[in-house]
Amino acid sequence: MALVPYENHTSLPGLSKLHEPSATFHFAKHKIHIRQDWKRLGVAAVVWDAAVVLCTFLELGSIALEGSSAVELGAGTGLVGIVAALLGAKVTITDREPAVEFLESNVQANLPLDFQARTKVTELTWGESLDRFERGGYDLVLGADIVYLEETFPDLLKTLEYLSSERTVILLSCRIRYERDQDFLKMLQQGFTVEEVHYEPERDVHIYKAQKCRVKEDL
């Protein structure tokens, strides 16, 4: 969500890879080359560990992707959406307007034309102009490292509520860095059932699965 440029602190352990112009991954029997641009777009234009862990989880096949409709929120470089598409999903890959052109360049560079035909890249600012999307029209909602700015939580929840039906599976991959991250999960639990389905200790990344609570009908 936040397009925040940072100074190049390459001396800090673990951060130097974020300043590389590209990163290479192997998922879904494809080599994926992701272009990065930290100086211009900040956190929106680098691959975070949460995205890599979520891609690995998707590749394990716990969630059926073939023929499903999916939407990725705050896609950044587009790695998760690209992998979901390669695994058979029809994917709408979204981020804020300043990141869309960069995002689309990665998608076009890494998806064969037949996969691109069922993949859409478009602007989505959480909580705004949601009527451009089908209400409750997705089987899967994906988000990697999108839970970190407290001021965005209400709009993120509004967006998840709009995009989801009772059949929709939401997968959120994130680190729990601060108390506010736990607060978001509590907010999410007010309208969704939430469970942790995976934890990667090496990267300290959690994956949470959420589904909209069923509305009880009056007798």
From TrEMBL:
It catalyses: L-lysyl-[protein] + 3 S-adenosyl-L-methionine = N(6),N(6),N(6)-trimethyl-L-lysyl-[protein] + 3 S-adenosyl-L-homocysteine + 3 H(+). GO terms for biological process: methylation. GO terms for molecular function: methyltransferase activity. Keywords: Cytoplasm, Membrane, Methyltransferase, S-adenosyl-L-methionine, Transferase, Transmembrane, Transmembrane helix. It is found in: Cytoplasm. The keyword Endoplasmic reticulum does not apply. One of its GO terms (cellular component) is protein-containing complex. The chain crosses the membrane at residues 41-64, 70-89. Belongs to the methyltransferase superfamily. METTL21 family. This is Protein N-lysine methyltransferase METTL21A. It comes from Acipenser oxyrinchus oxyrinchus.
